[in-house]
Amino acid sequence: MADAMVDGKGRGKAPLVQDADYKKRYGFSDKFEYTFKSRKGIDEDIVREISKIKGEPDWMLEKRLMGYSQFQLKPTPTWGADLSGIDYNDIYYYLEPTDKKSSSWDKVPEEIKRTFDKLGVPEAERKFFAGAEAQYDSEVVYSHIKDELAKDGVIFVSTDEAVKRYPEMIKRYFGTVIPSTDNKFAALNTAVWSGGTFLYVPKGVRVKMPLQTYFRINTEKAGQFERTLIVADEGADVTFIEGCTAPIYMSSSLHAAVVEIIAKKNAHVRYVTIQNWSKNVYNLVTQRAFAHENAFVEWLDANIGSKVNMKYPSIYLKEKGARGSVLSVAVAGQDQVQDNGGKIYHLAPETTSQIISKSVSAGNGITTYRGLLHIDKSAAKVKSTVRCDALLLGEDSKTNTFPYMEAYSEDATITHEARTGKIGDEELFYLMSRGLSEQEAVTAVIMGFIDPLASELPLEYSVELKRLIKLDMPKSVG
Q1: In this predicted model, what pLDDT tens digit does every residue of 82-112 receive, in sequence order?
Q2: d(C-alpha 60, C-alpha 76), whole Å
């Protein structure tokens, strides 16, 4: 495996500064009395208690217990970022904010509603989305889909609700893309999952406006373990956007979600993540998609927050003509580790893919690209492009690149490009000579660097991503 470690030798240390606007919008927390709050720690009793509270059928409890068994057996990964700070016995695994989920925003409890109002979620739904869900700690508290989509047969509900209303569909697909045996955090999610989204788009239905789920961790030392399952039937088309935040605490929280996507023949699924967890959160997510004949799956992944972020969206191109794309942006500020990348498996002929990653490291932040491209011996006439670019701000920032390629087909066409650089004195001098301050000049370079990927986001989210990066960047590099 290729290994490149680069230290920026730029213009000096660059401490991360977050202004009052950032803290006001994203760093706040709310006092809230929970309907139910489990004791800290995880054991079989906790797993059974979660299932009992939810009134689940025996088959889901069996899945949970299998997940817990695998969680106990599998070690915490040591090949990536340092995860030794996670204390599994010092985490609340289930917090129920309300026993009533609503499809009307007016009926959501006032304390929760104020939280999401501050984050702009209701306003965003009214303006931009065909439907939205809001998850507060362990449970979805609000879910709504436009009437015309419901009439078309689109199902957009919390995964908990889907277990009760659509059990045969959940039995058919749950855990088929990411089994509990996959890794320690997928196993943990299977054991204690709560909330998340089940989205089914029927054959031939094209959802013209995005659907969104917004996740909020509000409690110190809390874990959030949502389970998202998306099934796009033959010829279906949908864009799904996921946003996430948490308040700023001294002690760590854990987010270990699982996202499974199934794109059937000729379907198109675009999954967008804007991850802005606070810098006390370990974000350890498993995301994977299966793309069938001529299907197209896109992951658009923007990562700004979290203490440690380890996320590698994967696509299995299972049938002829399938396409996959992973586009990621990662920004690591002071004391942050952004360990990102993508994996694509070409398992059928005439499949195409791309992995494009851009990262920015500031202060002592560390970004890492980890990518896997696998081309099976039966996958003839494959085309794939991999490109990872890194920008360093300051002498203490670091970036790593770990590209890994397995090509077993003789006629595959593969291109790979990697570049690492820093903001040069000449660039800054030119921009500052045009009247920009040093900070404005640095920001302009960063915005130009990420723009090719940011422009792929829906307009409102592209603007928000750029605004967040501006807030999160150092005030100087000198």
Answers
A1: 999 999 999 888 877 544 444 444 555 555 4
A2: 25
Which residue matches tokens 């890994």? Answer: 404
Distance CA 470, CA 5 (A): 26
Going by C-alpha positions, the residue among 412, 419, 326, 322 that lies closest to residue 372 is 326
Q: Say how far apart CA 4 and CA 369 lie, in whole Å.
A: 10
Are the C-beta atoms of residues 226 and 193 closer than 8 Å to each other?
Answer: yes
> Amino acid identity, residue 261?
I
Contacts of 224 (CB under 8 A, 6+ apart): 135, 137, 138, 195, 215, 217, 253, 254, 255, 256, 257
Element (H, E) at 125: helix 121-128
Residue 58 structure tokens? 């025996």
Query: Residue type for 143, please?
Result: S
Question: Cα–Cα distances in Å, from 171 out to 59, 107, 159, 174?
Answer: 8, 32, 12, 6
Helices 459-472 and 438-454, axial angle in degrees (round to 10): 150
Whether this model's pTM surpasses 0.85: no
Q: What is the pLDDT of residues 182-230, one digit of tens each?
A: 999 999 999 999 888 899 999 999 998 888 877 666 665 677 899 999 9
Other CB atoms within 10 A of residue 30 CB: 14
Distance of alpha carbon 60 from alpha carbon 70, whole angstroms: 15
Q: Distance of CA 311 to CAs 81, 181, 191, 307, 371, Å?
A: 11, 18, 20, 13, 11
Residue found under tokens 């959802």: 207
Distance CA 43, CA 65 (A): 10
d(CA 303, CA 311): 9
Q: At what angle do helices 425-433 and 438-454 cross, to 10 degrees?
A: 110
- CA–CA distance, 330 with 390 (Å, rounded to integer): 9
